[in-house]
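Q: My labmate handed me this sequence with no annotations at all. I'd like to see what the chain might look like in three dimensions before we decide whether it's worth expressing. Could you predict it?
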Amino acid sequence: MILKPKSTTLNTKALLYRRFTSIEKSINLNALYYTVSDGQYWTFDNNILQFNAIILEQIPSQSTIISIEDNTMLLQYLTNYFKYDGNSWVSGQISEGVSLLNAKFNNIAKYQTNRYYFVGSFDYTIKGSIDGTTTQFIKGNKMALTSLNIKYFNDEFPLSVDDLVVIDNRLYSVENPEIVKKRMPKPFNIYFATLNSIL
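A: Here is what I predict for the chain of 199 residues:
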């Protein structure tokens, strides 16, 4: 009877990072509001109808700054009216003696970025030889590429194509994940994957 091995070698463990998609928001800071009563700078987000404080160091020199002197100045966006009460932005109403300005917003777009989180570590063995070659992802930019095949037994988090693996302080992308099912007599899986160096 062959038991499934718990630890394969005395190699340092491989570190697994898994990808997730993050939604980011981009603003250009072209138009800012300066509240005179407390000396704060604000941007207006027209998606959620909210003002966000900005620190002075973040403001580019070409920004247009609009001073809001007191709560008699109303900012209008579509059918919404806002005024600054000395502490925060609140809903306002049009009344006599109130100045009305159109709210300028800085939202450009939302975009996706790939981020990675640490999943865990696992034991592995190198299957076969380690291949070294050069590749050219961008014309004129030749880079060394190391490729190796690994074998491992960890059922907790099998590798997938979008994963990154760190072995001996070197980053690899995962290709061709494979599962071989065995039954001797208890069923268990053996996992294989090809790793290509990134850095």
